[in-house]
Each structure stands twice: as structure tokens, then as C-alpha cells.
């Protein structure tokens, strides 16, 4: 914990004056120090070579601390993973805070520490950012925006246009864990063991797959808000292909499945934060799956479906007992403030 002479964030900490500098000097700059951020310029001077990817995202999850993570590491992992889904190796992130006055400094510090650790694990640097403070009641503790840039892997050719009939659809791990971890805290639900969010960085895992299989990986996407079902429906509509998925193949933790059933939620629509979906060539699907399962991020990966010529623009689920139903997009907000 930094040695500071205040316990809570006040409006003065967003004024740009002495209090702002005290907060940033004792927190952000010291903790996240690197050669680029240490310049303390209005922007960052970066060296990037070749084709790059750029992504931005805002995070307003409630609660800000949840089983398996907090808003800080979620913000880093979210943008790192968005870049990885483009086939890029993330390099640099910006980091901006909107803080509600009254936030305990100990909470802010814990978030900063988690950001530092998440950056170290993913291998990225925070190089620029901003801090604003809003009046009590005009925010909700803390909101975070992160933007990121990374260089495209030379073996990557990621895009919906690459999807082919016969492609296999792989999900990298157990579904619905993040959404149910958030909901269990909000609703005060207790289970035999605590449901943990799956928030994590995926860039190293994805880079390894691209280095080994290159253009056999046709599309990558992360099923965050709206879950697996909504992402697959969006892809089917955008490409005019049909998609078939198999309920018996969907990887899900038993406790998460039980929680979904208890609350009347369809796990296919529950948000994820540490998963990706890959559309891969039929010929290499088995070896790609085997390689993915060798990584700790993909040990529960499974082939969950196939791209088909039938029922274009539709996603069809084959149930465990052989029945079939059409999967639509999530019609509304199943669980707000999830990321």
C-alpha cells in the first residue's frame, strides 16, 4: 500500500493540480513505470513495424471486485484479447480512469496492482492515459477505458470472408463462468465452491496457434456480452452460412451449469471473458484442438460445431437427446454491467 496522507479519492484528485500529481506520482507512475510512460508526455512515442491492429473498450463492471478478478485486470485482459482476436500481438495500452469521489484509496491501489500484474503476464506496457474524478452519485466507484495497439502476426489471415463450408468451430474453454461469477455476487448466491470469473489474457495462446497453423485459422472472436450464441448468430448472418452446434460438446463447469439451471438462464447467452471461438479448416481441426489443449488456457477446449450449407444465416443447436432448435441473438440485456 502506498504511503499517502488521504484515504479516499476527492474531486481535487481530478483537478490536474497538486492532489492529482500526488495521486499519480505515488500510484500510477511509480507502479506502472516503463521507459515510455516515464516521459509523462500528453501522448506516447511508439515503435511499431508492419501492419497493426487497434482496439478500444470501456469497462464498468459491477461489482468492481468479483470472484476471480476485478475491473483492473478485466480492462487489461479485455483489450489484450480484442487485439489477439485480430491476429495481433498486443504491445501498448492506454489507461484512463473515471473515478467517483469517495472511492477508497486502498481499492484504487488494489486495482492498480492488478493492472500491473495483468500487463506483466500479457507482456504489454501502459504508455499513456488520463484520470478524471466525478462528483459523488454521478459515477459508480470507477470506470476504466483502455485502448491498445499491436502488430499483426505475419501468418495471420483473420476475417469472416475466410469461413468455408465444413469449417469446424472450436471454443477454447468452459463457457458462462464470468457471467455467473458476477451474478452470484450480486444475488448473494452460495454454492459448494465459489464460481470464478474466467478473465485472463489469451494473446500468447493465440500467437502459438497462429505460428503453428497460420491460415488454417479462418476467424477468431471472443464471446463476451451476449455469449456464444449471439456471436455465432452474428457470424452466420454476416456470412450467409449455416452453423450447427452440438449441446453435448459444449464445455461447461458442472457448478456453473447448475447455477444457470437454478436461475433459468441459458449458458449459451451468458458472458465470457477468457475464451475465444475459432473457425478452423476441417482438415486441421483435430490437430489444432490437440495443440490448444496443451496450453493451460485451452485445456477444456472442444469442437462444438460445423459450418454448413444448409439453413443459411441460421444457427441450429442439436440437443443432447437429438432434437434441434434455432438459436437467435440475445433479444435484450440478460445481465447489465457485466464488463
Automatic annotation (TrEMBL):
It holds the Pfam family AIRS. InterPro entries: HypE, PurM-like_C_dom, PurM-like_C_sf, PurM-like_N, PurM-like_N_sf. Gene3D superfamilies: PurM-like C-terminal domain (3.90.650.10), PurM-like, N-terminal domain (3.30.1330.10). Residues 165-314 form the PurM-like C-terminal domain. GO terms for biological process: protein maturation. Residues 42-152 form the PurM-like N-terminal domain. Belongs to the HypE family. This is Hydrogenase expression/formation protein HypE. It comes from Flagellimonas nanhaiensis.
Amino acid at each position: 500500500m502506498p504511503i499517502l496522507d488521504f484515504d479516499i479519492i476527492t474531486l481535487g484528485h481530478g483537478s490536474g493540480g497538486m492532489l492529482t500529481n500526488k495521486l499519480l506520482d505515488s500510484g500510477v507512475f511509480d507502479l506502472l513505470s516503463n521507459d515510455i510512460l516515464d516521459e509523462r508526455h500528453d501522448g506516447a512515442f511508439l515503435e511499431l513495424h508492419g501492419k497493426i491492429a487497434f482496439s478500444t473498450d470501456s469497462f464498468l463492471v459491477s461489482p468492481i471486485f468479483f470472484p476471480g478478478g476485478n475491473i483492473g485486470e478485466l480492462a487489461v485482459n479485455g483489450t489484450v484479447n480484442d487485439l489477439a482476436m485480430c491476429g495481433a500481438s498486443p504491445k501498448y495500452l492506454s489507461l484512463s480512469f473515471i473515478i467517483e469521489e469517495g472511492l477508497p484509496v486502498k481499492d484504487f491501489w488494489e486495482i492498480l496492482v492488478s493492472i500491473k500484474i495483468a500487463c506483466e503476464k500479457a507482456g504489454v506496457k501502459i504508455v499513456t492515459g488520463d484520470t478524471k474524478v466525478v462528483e459523488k452519485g454521478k459515477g459508480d466507484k470507477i470506470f476504466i477505458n483502455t485502448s491498445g495497439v499491436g502488430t499483426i502476426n505475419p501468418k495471420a489471415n483473420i476475417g469472416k470472408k475466410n469461413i468455408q463450408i465444413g469449417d469446424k468451430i472450436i471454443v477454447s474453454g468452459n463457457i458462462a463462468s464470468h457471467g455467473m461469477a458476477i451474478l452470484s455476487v450480486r444475488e448473494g448466491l452460495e454454492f459448494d465452491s465459489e464460481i470464478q470469473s474466467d478473465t485472463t489474457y489469451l494473446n500468447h495462446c493465440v500467437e502459438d496457434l497462429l505460428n503453428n497453423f497460420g491460415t488454417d485459422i479462418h476467424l477468431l472472436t471472443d464471446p463476451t456480452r451476449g455469449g456464444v450464441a449471439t456471436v455465432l448468430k452474428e457470424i452466420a448472418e454476416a456470412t450467409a452460412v449455416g452453423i450447427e452446434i452440438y449441446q453435448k460438446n459444449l464445455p461447461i463447469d458442472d457448478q456453473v451449469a447448475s447455477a444457470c439451471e437454478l436461475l433459468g438462464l441459458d449458458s449459451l447467452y451468458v458472458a465470457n471473458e477468457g475464451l475465444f471461438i475459432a473457425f478452423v479448416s476441417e482438415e486441421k481441426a483435430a490437430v489444432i484442438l490437440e495443440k490448444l489443449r496443451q496450453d493451460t488456457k485451452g485445456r477444456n477446449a472442444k469442437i462444438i460445431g460445423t459450418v454448413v450449407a444448409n439453413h443459411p444465416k441460421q444457427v441450429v443447436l442439436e440437443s443432447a437427446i437429438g432434437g434441434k432448435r434455432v438459436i437467435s441473438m440475445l433479444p435484450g440485456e440478460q445481465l447489465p454491467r457485466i464488463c
